[in-house]
Amino acid sequence: MTDTHAIDTSNSAHDDEHHGGSISTYIAVAIALVFLTACSYWTYTPFWPFGDNVAIKRLWMMAVSCTKAMLVIMFFMHLKWEANWKWVLTVPASIMSMLLVLSLIPDVGRRFQHASHERMIYAAERPALEDTRQDEEMDLEEPLIQLHSPDEKTPVNH
Question: pTM surpassing 0.85?
Answer without folding.
Answer: no
